[in-house]
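Data deposition worksheet. Section B asks for the primary sequence of the deposited chain exactly as it was used as input, without tags or linkers unless they were present during the calculation. Section C holds the resulting structure in token form. Section D is free text for depositor observations; keep each observation to a single sentence. Incomplete worksheets are returned to the depositor.
Section A, Depositor: J.P.
Section B:
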Amino acid sequence: MDELVHFEVADGVGTITLDSPHNRNALSAQLRRELKGHLDAATNDDAVRVIVLAHTGKVFCAGMDLKESRSADSDQQGVNEFPALLEQIWTSPKPVVAKVAGPARAGGVGLVAACDIAVAAETATFAFTEVRIGVVPAVISVTVLPRLNARQAHELFLTGETFDGRRAAEIGLLNSAVPADDLDSEVERYTDMLALGGPTALAATKSMLTNQRPESMSDDFAEMLQLSARHFAGEEGQEGITAFAEKRKPSWVPEALR
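Section C:
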């Protein structure tokens, strides 16, 4: 069986590519399994500083594979495996960048929202099409709703309306929407910036951004103070401070960016 998801590493960037154009990169069982495996590999590879989630073909991801969903009981639906996949991206200790050149629908939008940074071509389109086939955008709401304000979420989840990359950036689903010819350079701009950060500092910062904060300000300050002091005094923090004083790049910066 041909591989549907590929993984390659170059200059500190681990690129995971969805390559199932025959079904619009739908989230089939095989694709989900391979995507999880490559995310594991990227996370465990010290050479990978940043992960890029990309695709072949005209479509980024059409959502769940509806052919596999037909006639299956609720406990056999592929969507049961999807929360773990979204959480794996959301909680990855390494930054994940979505590179979207074409349409994303339903679960595909959930993947985009789970990534830390999302860049798309202005011509890429997005839609929460679930209600139009009689299902609910429930699982993806966990990653999508933190990106959108309530008005936008109600409108787009309830209508299933298709919207383009420019609007996706305006409402917070994307960090950037650019002309299609500029997509590669825009993604590279983000990956270069992310690769300059210390690996443990990036992981800790991402955890700080996604974890629930204490209710009281004093408890929040106490927790954040411990986090800050620990990293100032840590090996990576000391290397960064020394490199700054010596006017050089820290040791963790990939050779290509030195």
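Section D:
DSSP finds eleven helices and nine strands in the chain.
The chain has a mean pLDDT of 95.
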